Amino acid sequence: MTASLSAPTSRTAWLERWLSQLPAPSGPLAAVQERGREALAQQPVPSSRQEEWRFTDLSLLQDLPLAQAAAAPSGGAMSSEAGVLRLQLDGRTDPLAGVELPAGLQVLSDSELAQGLGHTLAATGCEHHWPVELNHASAGRVLALRLASRSKLKLELHSTAQSGLLPLRLLLILEEKAELELCQKIVAQGSGLISLVLEAHLARSARLQHGLVASGQADAALLAHLAIEQEPESHLALSSVTVGWGLARLEPRLVQVDGQASSTLRGLQLVGGRQIADTHSHVSFAGPEGQLDQLHKAVAAGHGRSVFNGAVQVPRAAQRTNAAQLSRNLLLSDRARIDTKPELEIVADDVKCAHGATVSSLQTDELFYLQSRGIDSDQAAGLLKRAFCEEVLRDLPPAARAWCPIEQWQLEDA
Amino acid sequence: MIRPDAPVLLEIRDLHARVEAKEILKGVNLTIRAGEVHAVMGRNGSGKSTLSKVLAGHPAYTVTGGTVHYRGENLLELDPEQRARIGVFLGFQYPVEIPGVSNLEFLRVATNARRAQKGEEELDTFAFEDLVRDRLKVVQMDPAFLDRSVNEGFSGGEKKRNEILQMALLDPLVAILDETDSGLDIDALRIVAGGVNQLATPDNATLLITHYQRLLDAITPDYVHVMAAGRILRTGGKELALELEERGYDWVDQELAALAGEVA
Description:
The complex is a heterodimer of chains A (about 425) and B (about 260).
Chain A: H1 2-21, H2 30-42, E1 76-77, E2 84-88, E3 105-107, H3 110-116, H4 119-123, H5 130-138, E4 143-147, E5 152-161, E6 164-174, E7 179-188, E8 192-202, E9 207-215, E10 220-230, E11 235-243, E12 247-256, E13 262-271, E14 276-285, E15 291-300, E16 305-314, E17 322-331, E18 337-346, E19 352-360, H6 364-371, H7 377-393, H8 398-401
Parallel strand pairs in A: 2-5, 4-6, 5-7, 6-8, 7-9, 8-10, 9-11, 10-12, 11-13, 12-14, 13-15, 14-16, 15-17, 16-18, 17-19
Antiparallel strand pairs in A: 1-2, 3-4
Helix pairs in contact in A: 2-5, 6-7
Chain B: E1 8-19, E2 22-33, E3 37-41, H1 48-56, E4 61-70, E5 73-74, H2 80-85, E6 88-91, E7 98-102, H3 103-117, H4 125-136, E8 149-150, H5 156-170, E9 174-178, H6 186-199, E10 205-210, H7 214-218, E11 223-228, E12 231-236, H8 238-247, H9 250-263
Parallel strand pairs in B: 3-10, 3-11, 6-9, 9-10
Antiparallel strand pairs in B: 1-2, 1-4, 4-5, 7-8, 11-12
């Protein structure tokens, strides 16, 4: 009896210890921090007993150093070139210090922030998700920007974590017809956790192209929520690539508030060794004539584990929705594991919703064809793996595409 | 071109092979010398495509007996890529589509693998583009096909031209062309056959696997072999192909029956 009572405590002891070590809430996010900490103190750490976390074990977190990483010396603006605003996010220093903002880009005021922060998380139903609360509890900064109507901007965000915890919080408001190309690079160079929460609101006819490239290592974890609200005629293209993380959990959450918007989702996750990559996407159409084009791909080698869960909600109000979702998976080892599941809730009757999932290994005939031209089997396998990934990579904005040196990515076979 | 003193390139002796549990080749003998064009004809299921795949080293086929020597070297102990590098080429009946792999890059990697084997220096992107543009002429191929994925969405004729383009780049000593004429209209057949003829030299040899005489109107064989039940039943000159065209394959069944009778 004692054992069964003490077991849950020991599973969450690391979290209690972490919470007790956090500095007192302060800054513009003090209230959010406080609420996040209260929530974490009460909410159990997700476990495989919950459907949403069935395949994804968070136990890696308890072994990671979770003290907040010291500020990198080179915060703020990086070298920039014409038409591109390049910022470094380290979670501590002000990324905008000394930066002259380009025309059309503004920092949200405190009152706008108080009003806007959390809005899209609530609209996409994830404001109380455990990884979001973890971000709330720890993030001391938010990069909150508004792009004015009809403005166009290319923004690059760079985050490199040496070790420990790096919480990143972003809020982006795109006014009518604003166009933002956002390239975001996240790199873990040491043991630790990167927590990302991004909220974006796309007003009518706004366009956001977001390319997220996150490369980690076996003793690092990434927990990311990307929450996006779309008004009619807005366009979202979100492409994400994760590679090398001991644990990566990505939750793109989209809502088309009145339908009539278009959303393109591209995801690629690569696992080897004993890595886990999990994408839980959630797209909800709250009005008619919305469009979704989603392709999720995974490559699993070694004992790697890939999870994809693609929820699409088409309620009665979402007539004439046109949604297509495809999950394609490449299994490179018989010890790797792939779990993929579409989750379509369709109530409206006049809709087109297609979905499909495939899991395959490298095709013998393709390999033999390449070998019969003098290409050795390893190189042939490499070409085929690259080809598999290319379908997602080619949709990244060019700057983000350049962050994917796929020929250098080694998936650990053990 | 038959020259009795030309060096032997390929020597197949009593070759037996199976796919899964089924024995398909049951004792094939064939000697190919430099400068020669051989045609192997036969019905579907006679084993002629199997012969081509076994020679190229397809993993689905298991050799159960016999030998194959290429310029004196035991071909059967080499991996498919090694066979290709030393100059054995298989033109596929059904060239494989590989979405996402650029045709140009594929051709360059393959060409460099063969060049390295011959002790020639690797070609960089620019030097290779020059070479490939020159070789495209052999099959009158549109350079636009270089920028596409390997064979993806190519028509039947375009795929076969791409095969001959690969042959033109790899410069093999023994080219085995498996049903290269299948799926081609008359113009495409003329272009593909023209490419094969241009590439034939006194130093290399071609083994055509085909069903029909019409390919042999465009590429004149020195030898025609009729294959049935996993063996070469008869060998002759180009007139044998004409005879087959006229009489069909029914006589093959009679000969097989007669052979079976002798054995019994």
